[in-house]
Amino acid sequence: RRPRAPDHRPSDHRGGLDADGQSGNGAGLLIQVPDRILGGSYAVAVVFEWDGRGRAIVEHAITEAGMQIAGWRAVPVDRDSLGRRALETMPAIWHGLIEDPDLGREEWEHRLYRARRRAERKAATEGVRMYIPSCSSRTVVYKGLMAGTRLADFYLDLRDARCESCLAVFHQRYSTNTMPDWRLAQPFRMLAHNGEI
User: What pLDDT is stored for residue 6 in this prediction?
Assistant: First the structure.
């Protein structure tokens, strides 16, 4: 008889872990905007904010692009699920809920893209430490500096029965040439690559 192959869970495969056994090289999930959780049909700007100035920059860029932020939602998370390294470098995580400007969906997406790029340039110029994982009326990205098996432990939305999506792209990063960072966790805003998808 042939020996039995080891039992590997796909989400564990090749994902790097920090010495604390909880912080990882990063993992993330791209899904459709969860309208039932948000209580309406909004575009969502996901903002990682380290110094408290990022939301104002994003809000200004959204307004300049002819759109309106309906409000900011502190994304519900379980900080206790993180390892030491991830917790030490964790940003504040926000959802900016953007009202439909009554345009076609493609034009809305173009405006959201331009607003995101404008906000990123202004943040870079002013030395504001922030990152926008996604800004879209279609999809939202949940990601961070954790192992893939701990993504839903951290993001409480992913445990909510109202979180529904017709698509899901999951990625666990395996870093070989850069230091792990909250911003570098994949997937990116529209795709994932060079790792376990």
Answer: 40
Cα(74)–Cα(89) distance, integer angstroms: 17
- Identify the DSSP state of 76: P
Q: Which residues face 44 on adjacent strands?
A: 97, 136
Predicted TM-score (pTM) of this structure:
0.86
Tokens of 68: 């309106």
Q: How far apart are the first and last CA of the chain?
A: 33
| Spatial CA neighbour of 177 closest among 50, 25, 60 | 25
Query: Residue 141's beta-bridge partner residues?
Result: 30
Residue 63 and residue 55 in contact, taking contact as beta carbons nearer than 8 Å: no
Helix (H, G, I), strand (E, B) or coil at 38: helix
Q: Give pLDDT tens digits for 64-96.
A: 999 999 999 999 999 999 988 899 999 999 999
- SS3 helix, strand, coil % of the chain, rounded to 5? 30, 25, 45
Q: Which residues contact 192 (CB under 8 A, 6 or more apart)?
A: 28, 30, 169, 170, 171, 186
Q: Where are the alpha helices (DSSP H) in 89-191?
A: 105-126, 151-154
* CA 120 – CA 117 distance, rounded (Å): 5
Query: Over 50: is that where the pLDDT of 14 sits?
Result: no
